[in-house]
Specification:
The structure holds 2 protein chains of 2 kinds. Chain A is mostly helical. Chain A has 11 helices and no strands. The two termini of chain A are 20 Å apart. Chain B is 11% helix and 38% strand. The chains are: A mainly alpha, B mainly beta.
Chain lengths: 255, 413
Amino acid sequence: MTTIVRYILADLLRTRFALAYTVFLAIVTMALFQLDNDPSRVTLSILNIVLMVVPLFSIVFATIHYYNSYEFMTLLLSQPVKRSTLLLSEWASVAGTMAGSLVAGVGIPSLIYGALTQVLPLLLAGVAMTCCFVSLAFLASVMTQDKARAIGISLLFWIYFSMIYDGLLLLVVYSFSDYPIEKITLALIALNPIDLVRISILMEMDVSALMGYTGAFYRSFFGGTTGMLFCIVMMMIWILFPLWISRRIFMNKDL
Amino acid sequence: MKALLLILLVCLACVTQARRITVKEDVSLKNAVQNAIAGDTIMVSAGRYKPGNLIIRVPLVLTGVNQPVLDGEGRFEVITVQTPGVTIRGFRIVHTGVSSIEDFAAIKVIAGHHVTIDNNIIEEAFFGIHLSNTDSARISNNIISHTEQPEESRVGNGIHLWKCQGAVITRNQITGHRDGIYFEFVTGSRVESNFSHHNLRYGLHFMFSHQDTYLNNRFESNGAGVAVMYTHHVTMIGNSFIRNWGPSAYGLLLKEIRDSEVSQNIFESNTMAIYMEGSSRITLSGNEFRTNGYAVRLQASCDDNHFARNNFKGNTFDLATNGSLVMNKLDHNYWDRYEGYDLNHDGIGDIAYHPANLFTLISERIPAAMVLWRSFTVYLMDRAEKAIPSLIPAGLQDTAPMMKSYDRLASTR
């Protein structure tokens, strides 16, 4: 597996996409630090990047990469290589590259401006987010045979999780506003990795005081060990479950 | 005229009789206070005294030389004044008793008008200075602090006034008490240049205290900020409300306040800079709102308030409201989020600014919707609403937003 990962990584680095992504993140982060010298406000802006840009780039790039290395995969599978090993190697290399770019692109400027401690939870969340959306990209890729359709499905995933889901959540909150629905919204939030990361990061910051009763309730939950564990477990599920399904499909798929 | 002359004569008589007594130990201090005649001056030398409860029944001047310590031993109220015309200055009063039945204070004045309390240091007191039914009191240059920070029921207010008139409270510093300054039925008074910070509950808290003026005070990092209620004709000018941060902290909470003026104040880094409920005819002008969570939260129960020439900079939400009917006026404010233009270059934006956004409106009506804060969907909805307003009350707008912020560096202290 390590040999395969090494080859894929070399291939990935040759495309220079990872480098471009790192530079892009670094420039944006630097610009944010230049514009505003309050680290907590910069953190909020970086949160927007983690919530919007990271999932989009991860899912689109992973899908494109899958189809670009389709022939390579077919070639390898003609050798005595297990299908699951190949898929996992692909996943590990793509997720590793994207996560590495994120850590370098956001982490190094933050380190330069001396705000790494504030940005660190965000980086961890960003890495989890990257892994999750790479898994979803693999799921989208194995669901179809066609690159264009796969990218379409990927974008659909992204739009669903970053926009449509929140619209539905608002509808639920609105419809049941007469009931104490904090616990239910908590469960609903866990069903969307973007919301999960958004809320858990907001609760880490003192802006949660603006969120009134809801904020206080969530803060007491996410502030404790249970909340932290819940967060980590849910994120793990969001990374592993799509990957597991895509592995199953990939195993039985006619390539 | 005759009566006046008589009073003058009596006063003169007092003055002539007045003695100057110096005390150096507990017993003599107690005796001096007990046997004093009107107009005496008791000079208390430096040292540590445990006088129990000193009750002052005649007008006198009690002066501490080199800040002598009066210790309440955690059991007593230290000084109780029951007569008008007393002056207490230059003491360090520590460790009063704590009680849930009685309001033990370092200095308590009951029905003693024209009292002067000056230059004292009060530490670990239950109540700091407690005045009731006392007119024309002067409280200045005292430092009142409580460092132990027990729960709210175990510590009283720093300066507590009940049913007083014409008090002047200046240059005091209060920290670690329940409320820094607490007024109930206090009228025609002036509170100036005090610094009330890190109190457990409110920096300033008053009710039914009409015609009072608050100038150049600083209220910082208090548990719940400043809350004022059920009062008319309040003037608040040049105060600073800073870093009152927490789920239920307010820079300034105005509940049922009317016919008042709040101007040239600075509100910085508060969860909610101003929260208004049931308040009418308040002029809020020339204030500076910087980096607050909510700058103004204006409940629909407010009417005829006028926001003019304020600066709104770097607040998370500029204005939130919960109703559709707007009976307040906003004009000539500067909003850093204003995106309009000024074709005729008169410094006033040509299109109105709507400071409330859709999300604040939704979350005022459905608090649970706050879970969606900073979600991309919410951002899209806000932009859509800005482009084609349909839900935000149309009247809630600044009709003449300023293009440039007011420069108040000169007035910033």
